[in-house]
Design a protein that fits this description.
The structure is a single chain. By secondary structure, the chain is of the alpha/beta class. It has 13 helices and 24 strands. The longest helix is centred in the first third of the chain and has 40 residues. The termini are far apart.
Length: 556
């Protein structure tokens, strides 16, 4: 009887034993963490030439838990900063510091000079400051002595104008330049002089210089410390070219929204480069100045919390940021285009092909003209402009045009409309090379015309995984269509394919197997796709009913 009553003590004893084991484990982990922190302290002290972080001075009171946590966080910030400063693409002897609240920020500003730190720029809204230093030990000492005040400390990464590869490299790619036909490609016709009226596009670049394409009184300047005028360097006309594509009015330098106002904020220095602090500062300044469209035809391959804050600030205020994807033929976008809240734009040529230097990636939102586009430059010059730097302002101008022609439409709503009515490019649906498609402003503007017919061969695409050519048909009409026929010709042999009923915006894919033996023997196969509408149907854009592509064997 007694044995049965005491059996409950067995699980109880096991529970107590397990609790003791867990407590012992926590003590061991805490000891190891403290040892790791001490080791990091010694390494950082050695790297910066200071022993201030290596040990607690004799006689100093042992810190409480909150202080220990703050010091551990400060050590982590310092370790991250040391690592970042060792990377390429950072401004040396600089850091961007963010403080936990306004009081901590003010206290730092008061002591910065005495601490051996030079304040190079301030962004009060974010409690953030850009500092310079002769020795990292000065920053290290302040960070460790005021650990509880700091929220972040990063390097100041470069942001710069994306450079297209040298011209001679383009010869091997059969790209088709736009010249002065960019607006025709977008489906723009008639009087567009009022497009963009009442809308301000901020251009964060090298500075926008006066030009006949801007007329009088449409450019406003905002100085954030780099002046307002562009220099005379090789890239200093970049900002003027970008602004003209967004809002130019002259026939020899036309823009998409010739009625829009331009807010020019120079963010590049005399060397043609900018940095994350300056760009973030300019984004905030543009929003505060009333811009609801911000164009950034610059980029870099690093980001920080400060840029994230600036993008978030613009987003919260209802502004959209349009940014170039980059010109490195990389499977990665530059920042800020890589941020999913930013409208990232890649480049296509006049044949709706992705331009070979245009960066790709899952974050890519859209593509637009970016090869051989005529625009303005310094001193009234007209140039042929290449790069995703051209593509971004064309989309920015399209957003402004949509807003002005649809009273009450926000910048975000205008962008969503352009996404919805984009021409499909590459494989059907969104993809890393074309994003949600190619900008088609004519379709977006005419979306409410239910009588309009526009059926198109959207793309000829080779799917290497299946060994098939895919011919994508898209209905860009104001109503559903039926009775279409697609004729596909290859090596002089033509085969007709019936296209089923297509709703507005819908696509249909015709898949044709590729004869690999014939492709290898001939060195190429020429495909011609011709879309035929039912008798009596008048197509508003008959030019897009046909598309020719040349398929060559893959390189070995």
């Amino acid at each position: 009887m007694m044995r049965e009553k005491l059996t409950y003590l067995v699980p109880l004893a096991m529970g107590v034993l397990l609790a003791l084991l867990l407590l012992w484990r926590l003590v061991i982990v805490e000891r190891d963490n403290l040892a790791a922190l001490a080791k990091r302290d010694r390494a950082l002290a050695q790297a910066t030439g200071s022993a201030s972080a290596a040990a607690t001075p004799v006689g100093r009171k042992m810190p409480d838990r909150a202080t220990l946590r703050a010091e551990a966080a400060a050590q982590q910030l310092l370790a991250k900063l040391v690592d970042q400063l060792a990377q390429r693409g950072t401004r040396k002897h600089e850091s961007v510091l963010t403080f936990k609240d306004a009081d901590a920020y003010r206290k730092f500003l008061a002591r910065a000079q005495q601490s051996g730190l030079t304040v190079l720029g301030q962004l009060d809204a974010f409690n953030t400051v850009r500092v310079g230093f002769d020795s990292l030990s000065a920053l290290q000492d302040d960070l460790l002595q005021n650990a509880a005040d700091y929220q972040d400390a990063t390097a100041n990464f470069y942001i710069q104008i994306p450079h297209a590869p040298p011209a001679e490299e383009r010869a091997v790619v059969n790209q088709v330049p736009f010249g002065n036909r960019m607006l025709n490609f977008l489906g723009v016709a008639g009087d567009t002089s009022q497009w963009g009226q009442g809308v301000t596009i901020a251009v964060l670049d090298s500075g926008v210089m006066p030009d006949s394409t801007f007329g009088q009184g449409r450019i406003r300047y905002l100085d954030i410390g780099l002046g307002t005028s562009a220099g005379n360097g090789a890239e200093d006309g970049h900002g003027t070219a970008v602004a003209a594509l967004a809002a130019g009015a002259a026939s020899d330098a036309p823009g998409v929204a010739p009625g829009a106002s331009i807010l020019s904020i120079r963010v590049t220095g005399t060397d043609g480069t900018s940095d994350i602090f300056t760009l973030s500062q300019a984004i905030v300044a543009a929003v505060d100045a009333g811009a609801r469209i911000i164009n950034i035809s610059l980029g870099g391959y690093a980001t920080t919390g400060m840029l994230n804050q600036a993008i978030g600030y613009a987003y919260a205020q209802g502004a959209v940021i349009v940014a170039s994807a980059g010109n490195d033929q990389a499977a990665q976008l530059t920042w800020p285009a890589a941020d999913p809240r930013v409208i990232s734009v890649g480049a296509v040529d006049a044949a709706e092909q992705q331009v070979y230097f245009s960066n790709s990636g899952p974050q890519l939102q859209m593509t637009a003209p970016g090869y051989g586009v005529q625009t303005a430059w310094l001193d009234g010059q007209r140039v042929v402009f290449d790069g995703t730097s051209a593509s971004a302002p064309i989309v920015a101008g399209a957003i402004a045009a949509m807003m002005s022609q649809n009273p009450g439409m926000t910048a975000t709503q205008a962008w969503q409309t352009l996404q919805q009515y984009a021409s499909d490019g590459g494989p059907p649906g969104p993809d890393p090379a074309f994003g949600n498609g190619i900008l088609n402003l004519g379709w977006a503007m005419n979306r409410g015309d239910t009588a309009r017919v526009d059926t198109a061969v959207s793309s000829n695409y080779y799917d290497a995984t299946t060994g098939q050519m895919q011919f994508v048909v898209q209905n860009r009409s104001g109503h559903a269509v039926s009775g279409l026929q697609l004729n596909v010709e290859a090596n002089s042999a033509s085969i007709p394919y019936s296209v089923p009923w297509l709703d507005v915006g819908a696509t249909y894919v015709v898949k044709v197997p590729v004869d690999q033996a014939s492709l290898e023997a001939a060195g190429q196969i020429v495909y011609r796709a011709q879309l035929v509408n039912p008798p009596g149907v008048i197509d508003a854009v008959p030019a897009n009913n046909r598309k020719t592509s040349v398929l060559t064997p893959p390189k070995k």
